[in-house]
Structure formats: C-alpha cells, structure tokens
Design goal:
Mean pLDDT: 83
Structural class: alpha/beta
Strand content: 5-15%
Radius of gyration: 23 Å
Strand order of the largest sheet: 2-3-1-4-5
Helix content: 55-70%
CATH topology of the largest domain: Rossmann fold
C-alpha cells in the first residue's frame, strides 16, 4: 500500500470512529456537514481524496478540532511527531495538565475572564454585575448567549430538543465566546459543571469562582426574585439539598470559593478581586521558578503597571 493510500485509510478510520462515538449515521453526518452520504462513505472507506476545506466541514459537524481528524504519521520519528502521536490518545484530564505545565514553562500570561458558578440563587448575577463594574470589564449572562444562538428560550430548547442538544450548544457557544471575547465576568448556568469537557475548558481558560450558599439562602433568594414555583412543590427543599450535595464535588474544583451566606455582596466582590490577584501573582511566580530564573527587578524609574 502506498503512503498516500495508507494515510487516507487511517484518516477514514478516524472519521468513522469519531462519527460512531457520537452515535450518528452517515446520513446525519452528511446533513450536518453539508456533504453527500456517498462522498462520506468513500472517505471512511479510505478512497476519498478529501480537501482541507471539506475536512474542516466534517470536523465542524463533529464538533472536533480539525487536527483531531488527521492521523499521526507512523514513520515520523521526530520529537514533534512522537509527541503528536501521544497527544492523539490523551484524555481531557491529561491534556489539561499538559497545557497548564506548558503555559507555566513558557510564561504564558493572559488576562482571564472570571466565571462564576453555583446553583440558582447563589448571587451570580448580583455579584457578577458589581464585580464587572469594579474591574471595568463587561458582564455576561451565559444563558442569554445560548438563547441568542438557538433563537429560542431555554425552556423551549429543553422541551423541543432535549438535554443532549443543549449540552452540545453550550459547549459550542462557550468555545466561541472564550476564543473571541475580551476579558469579562461570566455568570454560568448552574448545571455547567455537570458537562465534564465544557467545565474543564472553563477552568482552563478562566478564573473560576464558586459562589457557595446554604440551601435556605438559595431558596429565599429565588423566591425573592419572584419565582414562587419552589414554594408549591412538595419536597422541593429536600430536592434542593440533594442537588447541592450532588454537585458540591464539581463546584469544589473551582479556583476560588466564596461563601455568600457569610459575606455581603460588597464583601464577596472584594474577596474575589483579592483572591484572583493572588492566583495571578502565584502563577507568575511559579512560571519564573519553573524557568529556573529570578524575576527581573523593575527599574526604579519605571512607573508601576496597572493591576487588573
């Protein structure tokens, strides 16, 4: 078998494996990618000489980076080739650890957005708006971004399309937002932490803050917003306590935890700003230590930089 044919065969196998992992038929992938079923069948069989543009359509339909579709060359024994081969089999957790290590080694420092997480009634909107104002950045309700993308309300989305559709849209909107938007304060949906890959992406790209509160405070705040649905539902408080207990290990993976049952809105905002600055300072220190060098002293005549 020629090198070209071997590559096309392996490419087809990877695309087929990714398609089957989603539970899709070839017809469905054809609809999503706007390519013909016959053409996709030829690709999966290793007989389709696909262009980069069409490969990009397939990757977009499968919600995969295009590089995930391209197989590593088995005869590439260069260091980069060997690393690429290992990366293809890495799980999300391993990739997260590798990214963190490389970012520190390369002293990569970016102004991260702050993502607030927690069950409804935690204070994400109230605290988020004040925090954004203090930092002079934008405030974004993530659920509103999803509704705008879908063109319908969340309630309609779940009723018509179900949870699986919502999760895929949530991830796609989050990827787009984090890749294209300036630093901001982001109030996330309460269930975002139950989507492992999306939650991992948010932790990797943002400062994450769990706004923690007691079940009673969550309840009272929701009712104070005018939502009386919990009041008339038998066992609603027990359900809320069970939900908080179930999600607590997921929320606890946040960088920062602020108990809004014990701190006022103003105090919570001040704590978040203080802890975010401490985290950023520690990261810069760790990066310098990883490089085995000491940070350069600022010249005495240079003005101090503005902190964010």
């Amino acid at each position: 078998m020629s090198e070209k044919n071997a590559f096309l065969k392996t490419l087809g196998q990877r695309i087929r494996a990714l398609r089957l992992a989603t539970g899709w038929s070839i017809d469905r992938l054809a609809r999503q990618s706007e390519l013909s079923p016959r053409f996709l069948s030829e690709i999966e069989a290793g007989r389709g000489n696909v262009s980069v543009a069409r490969l990009s359509q397939i990757a977009h339909a499968l919600e995969q980076p295009i590089q995930n579709l391209i197989p590593a060359a088995k005869d590439d024994i260069s260091l980069r080739g060997r690393i690429w081969e290992l990366l293809q089999d890495c799980q999300t957790k391993d990739l997260d650890e590798l990214y963190t290590w490389l970012a520190a080694r390369q002293r990569k420092h970016v102004q991260r957005s702050i993502a607030l997480v927690g069950v409804r009634g935690a204070g994400k909107s109230t605290i988020g708006k004040l925090l954004a104002a203090r930092l002079d950045v934008g405030f974004v309700e993530f659920d509103a971004l999803i509704e705008k993308e879908a063109g319908i309300s969340l309630n309609e989305m779940f009723r018509i399309h179900g949870d699986e559709y919502y999760r895929k849209l949530e991830r796609r909107v989050m990827e787009k937002y984090l890749a294209t938007s300036p630093r901001s304060v982001l109030a996330t949906g309460g269930s975002l932490v139950t989507a492992p890959e999306t939650w991992a992406m948010v932790r990797r790209e943002c400062h994450t803050v769990w706004l923690k509160a007691t079940a009673r405070d969550h309840w009272d705040r929701v009712v104070a917003q005018g939502d009386m649905r919990p009041v008339g539902k038998p066992g609603a408080m027990d359900d809320l306590r069970a939900l908080l207990k179930l999600r607590e290990p997921l929320y606890a993976r946040s960088e920062i935890v602020v108990d809004t049952s014990h701190h006022s809105v103003e105090e919570s905002v001040a704590l978040i700003i203080k802890r975010v600055r401490a985290v950023e300072s520690n990261r810069r220190t760790d990066a310098v230590n990883d490089q085995g060098t000491k940070p350069k002293k600022r010249p005495s005549s240079a003005p101090a930089g503005k902190r964010h």
